Every structure is written in structure tokens, then in C-alpha cells.
Amino acid sequence: MEIRIAERIRELMRAEGLNQSQLGEKIGVRQNTISAWLLDKKEPCIRSLWLLADYFDVDIDYLVGRKNF
Hints:
434 Repressor (Amino-terminal Domain); globular
């Protein structure tokens, strides 16, 4: 199974018309952290996955690539 967090976050940001700073403000995470996620330098911790899933109204399984919409 391939973990697809960066790809999924990028896709959801595009759909909402958000840049890194805006997403960071919405979920309470610094822009440089979002950048690290998108560049696959770092993966979100479980708390951040919850915040992302809640904000975008998706399952964590979707974020990590275990299922599609």
C-alpha cells in the first residue's frame, strides 16, 4: 500500500482554493509544516491527520490512501 498523504492534501487544497498559509491558519498548523508534508519531508502526526480530516470532511483512510471517495 502506498501512502498518499501529500498527494491527497494537495488535491484537497486545490479543490478548496487554499494555499499553504491559508490551510495552516484553518487547522492551526504553521505554513512550513504544511510545506514539509507536501514535499514528503515529513508526515502529519495523528492529531494533524484528525485536523485535516475534520476540516476537509474526509476519512483519515482517504488521506493516507487506504480508500477513495
